[in-house]
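Subgroup meeting minutes
Present: P.N., E.W., G.H.
Scribe: E.W.

1. P.N. recapped why we're keeping a running log of single-chain structure predictions: easier to compare across weeks, and new members can see raw inputs and outputs side by side.
2. G.H. added today's entry (253 aa).
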Amino acid sequence: MSYSKTLVSKMALIFGGSGGIGAAASRLLAEAGARVAVTYRPEGQGEAIAADLVRTLPGDKHLALAADVSSTASLVALRDAVTQKFGRLHILINAAGFTKPVPHADLDALDDDLIDRMFQVNWRGQFATIRTFAPLLKASGDGLIVSISSIAALTGVGSSIAYCAAKAGIDVMTKSLARVLAPEVRVLAVSPGVVDTAFVPGRSANFNERVAAATPLKRIGRPEDIATAILACATQLTFSTGTTIVVDGGRAL
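Output recorded in log:
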């Protein structure tokens, strides 16, 4: 007996779809049959990147839509657009995020503004997207939320102490929301280790090699590794909710 399921007729909304993990997840979900909407921040090059991604996805009627997770008004406007264009939502992927490296011992460098921004985007933003889209997900009767966490939540080692704390908050939020949104909506988190993307600025040229050497599986993650876990949440792990799935090659051991 096969426990996998197709995503044909499913609608997926992917925040941070123009980033490495979000783009990889968009491709896999579209390959599984989902109709995909990817978000981009209104400023910068996000719109062009998201538009290029949408054009390359298998299937049709995929969209790129502007949204700022730090602005609830922006999220409400996005919900209205999704409702108008799709009329439903089955899958919500929270892959938007932000970080800035700060040495953990440099307490003064982690100032109030940076702490507030870190939590505004990495925790409050993810909660706000769920709060905004929960009614649509519940109405589907078979909703799924997957938020991107980090092994920094477990190890306390990451780009900054505030980043570690925000990601620990994602893990706790996943448990709390899984209780209150069940049974109509499942809530999961995927926790990567180091991934080969440009998410963390300022890493040295040999950073990936040093991390790979210290990782049991002797490589760092690829965006596709994380996207595969996200796809599994939608197609394989259909009796799971409230848990965080670690995808780190053993890095946290």
